[in-house]
From TrEMBL:
Residues 247-320 form the Mannose-6-phosphate isomerase cupin domain. Gene3D superfamilies: Jelly Rolls (2.60.120.10). It comes from Flavobacterium caeni. This is Phosphohexomutase. Binds 1 zinc ion per subunit.
Length: 322
């Protein structure tokens, strides 16, 4: 059967977190299960959390089913050749009512060896920030495994780490090995490799409703951490109706596309394209059909959709694999 090519949306996979809140509902109208909902997984091929199509001909089909049947059409020829029938990226919205744990993600080699998984390179786009919101990214000065362990023993880990204020529109790119934490009062759009491997280093001695602390991975993190200084915050242009480069790395390319009217997009079939609507509303017009989206929507344009037009007033994150 031939692939029916159209923009795909998916049911959100909602995750309760000790640090979560209610903004995923108040801002995006996600059907959150409780007042501590921290994450909406918008597009996922993580085992046990595979996205299901919510619109059109393939509604009810899982991403895995479509990848198995139509890898070139969905992923693109180059992405399929590189990653096989696996969707290589994970897209999320996060609501941090409280600080997230201080954590680090392993690189591909370490993640493969320990967990048979991809590593977790990721980026954040700040969609909303309370007045005093901040982010922890990397070290204040070059550190070492010995200094890291000692700081955990004597409770001074926060003194070693680099903290920056965060505002709407800020972009942070976190290569594997970067110690980090999203602070309270932030709503984030996150783009990352398909991986759920996190090494939690410090959790502010928090306890859950049952009085339990969360597991820490101090030793696993030891050789996953990059102890050098890192440059994580990215500057970018905002030319209207154009793709403005934000992050370009081996795992994904992310552009900022401020839509004011319309923009026509031409693709070559090598990669899928994902749009995350971080503000406003827009339409995709292709093959004589119009598909509408609002703030907080994520849409997968299959690689076989090579020509389409974006219309509306919106701020979009445009993601593909080069």
């Amino acid at each position: 059967m031939n692939f029916k090519a159209y923009p795909l949306q998916f049911d959100p996979i909602l995750k309760e977190r000790i640090w979560g809140g209610t903004k995923l509902k108040s801002m995006f109208n996600k059907p959150i299960p409780s007042a501590i909902t921290g994450e909406s997984w918008e597009l996922s091929d993580v085992k046990g959390d595979v996205s299901v199509v919510s619109n059109g001909f393939y509604a009810g089909k899982s991403l895995t089913e479509l990848l198995e049947a139509y890898p070139d059409e969905l992923l693109g020829t180059q992405v399929h050749a590189r990653f096989g029938k696996q969707f290589p990226l994970l897209f999320k919205f996060l609501d941090a009512r409280e600080d997230l744990s201080i954590q680090v993600h392993p690189n591909d080699a370490l993640a493969k060896q320990r967990h048979d998984s991809f590593g977790k390179t990721e980026m954040w786009y700040v969609m909303q920030a309370d007045a005093d919101a901040r982010i922890i990214v990397g070290f204040e000065k070059k550190s070492s495994p010995e200094e890291y362990l000692k700081s955990l023993e004597d409770g001074t880990i926060l003194d070693l780490l680099h903290t920056v204020g965060a505002q709407k529109g800020d972009v942070f790119f976190l290569e594997t090995g970067t110690v980090h934490a999203i602070g309270a009062g932030l709503v984030i759009a996150e783009i990352q490799q398909t991986s759920d491997i996190t090494y939690r280093i410090y959790d502010f001695d928090r306890r859950d409703a049952q009085g339990n602390t969360r597991e820490l991975h101090v030793d696993l993190a030891l050789d996953a951490i990059n102890y050098d200084l890192t440059d994580t915050q990215k500057q970018y242009s905002k030319h209207p109706n154009a793709s403005n480069a934000m992050v370009d790395c081996p795992y994904f390319t992310t552009n900022y596309l401020p839509l004011d009217g319309q923009a026509t997009v031409q693709k070559d079939g090598a990669s899928f394209t994902v749009y995350m609507c971080v503000e406003g509303g827009f339409e995709i017009e292709t093959n004589g059909e119009n598909y509408r989206y609002k703030t907080g929507d994520t849409v997968l344009v299959p690689a076989s959709v090579k020509t389409f037009t974006l219309k509306g007033q919106a701020s979009l994150l445009e993601i593909y694999i080069s």
